[in-house]
Amino acid sequence: MEQKYYVYEWFNVDTGEVFYVGKGCRDRYKSLSHRNKLFLEYYKNNNVDVRIVKYFEIEDDAYQYEKELTDNYRKINQCKCCLIDGGYGGYSSIWSEEARKYKSENNPMKEEHQRKRMSVNNPMKNPDVAKKVGDKERRYVCIGENIYWGWKEAASAFGLTPNSVGWWLKKGYAPNGEPCYYIEKNTPDKKVM
How does pLDDT run along the chain (193 residues), one tens digit per residue? Predict the structure, then answer.
């Protein structure tokens, strides 16, 4: 099995201090996108580099190691740019009091006309809107000789997750080589499953 997950650490080249630990796959360790403000300031003001510490086959094992490594570095007053303890992924950020106040005062959802408009057009609250949105988004899916009313129904017929059928549609064929594609609602000449 390919080891596609890893734990990496950013460190100060001059002092050796580790200022950030993370878990990733592919090229995440080199990426500067979706980094917190402390990380970006440290990166900009210091001579830094990154290294992969350990590879894993199972993502949960990588998360566990990320948490342990972060804890160990924090015990020696390092890993200062990690805002969270690690071990579960996700995005985090810290807002200043000024930012909180501004967001609260300028929140468009607090205006009554906006809240009413959103409520009327919300498919979760209005069954007519839900049906309209659902029918608009759904398209027939053809896999081999069979046509399904949407990719979720096709996934159910094959006992798969909808994402699997989504990948088939993106590639244009199923794993067994059968063609897999969307067709228009008014064109099926085969029986819909």
Answer: 566 899 999 999 999 999 999 999 888 899 888 888 889 999 999 999 999 999 999 888 999 999 999 999 999 999 888 877 666 565 545 566 776 777 777 777 777 877 787 777 777 777 887 777 666 667 888 898 888 888 788 889 988 888 888 888 888 988 888 899 988 755 545 444 4
- What is the chain's mean pLDDT, rounded? 82
Which of 30-54 are b and which e, b meaning 16 or more Cβ less than 10 Å from the residue's Cβ? eeeeebbeebeebbeeeebeeeeee
Taking each helix axis as running N to C, give the angle between helix 151-158 and helix 162-171, from 0 to 180 degrees, rounded to the nearest 10.
Answer: 110
What phi and psi values does residue 186 have, to the nearest 5 degrees?
-90, 10
Cα(8)–Cα(30) distance, rounded to whole angstroms?
Answer: 10
In terms of DSSP bridges, do strands 48-56 and 180-183 run parallel, antiparallel, or are they unpaired?
A: unpaired
Q: How far is 79 from 28, CA to CA, in rounded Å?
A: 18
Amino acid identity of residue 170, one-letter, is: K
Closest by CA position to 86, among listed 71, 100, 96:
71
- pTM score, two decimals? 0.47
